[in-house]
Design a protein that fits this description.
Elements (H helix, E strand, L loop, with lengths): L25 H5 L2 H6 L7 H22 L4 E4 L4 H6 L13 E5 L5 H9 L7 E5 L7 E4 L8 E5 L6 E2 L5
The structure holds zinc ion (ZN).
């Protein structure tokens, strides 16, 4: 079980060229249209960079390998200021570099949620967003206990327990 990080220290192995992950660049994980527009600096601290590396090696890289096609990060790291600017959740794991919103061509949020569940990728929270709310899958990791909580974010707002029977 890769519930705790100490069980899997693979993320400590540096990637070639200093990349955060095999398939992901710092730019992909930190760029934000809102930050650029507002002239905000969205550079992660060293601690947040370590978290982003863990997110890549434990979640994003394995998912990319499982799917066999590109995983696009629509929102990765957010400073507190950026998170506020985009009205992100106050407790958002994006602020720690521990969450990514992802999209994959040809797969909707439901298909992505199901793909994640077919793997043994650890995650704290996975949220499938309705098309009207971005249509992405949010996937977040915890440094303590990964609950594997799955939620659905319906068009009208709020969050519901994800229903896999649908
Ligand atoms: Zn998110």
């Amino acid at each position: 079980m890769t519930d705790k990080w100490d069980c899997s220290m693979l993320w400590l192995i540096p990637m070639p060229d200093g990349r955060p992950g095999e398939f992901f660049s710092w730019k992909e994980l930190t760029s934000s249209a809102t930050a650029s527009r507002l002239g905000m600096d969205n550079t992660p601290s060293n601690e947040q960079k370590v978290n982003l590396k863990a997110l890549c090696s434990m979640v994003l890289d394995p998912l990319r390998r499982h799917l066999g096609k590109p995983v696009r990060v629509t929102s990765g790291f957010r400073t507190e200021a950026l998170n506020k600017a985009i009205k992100g959740s106050k407790t958002s794991a994006h602020r720690y570099g521990l969450a990514a919103d992802i999209k994959v061509t040809g797969l909707d949020a439901h298909a992505l949620m199901e793909a994640v569940m077919l793997t043994d990728i650890p995650f704290d929270q996975a949220i499938a967003y309705a098309p009207g709310r971005g249509g992405h899958l949010h996937i977040g990791l915890s440094t303590a206990h990964n609950r594997k909580q799955t939620l659905w974010a319906p068009k009208g707002g709020g969050y519901e327990k994800y229903d896999f029977s649908k």
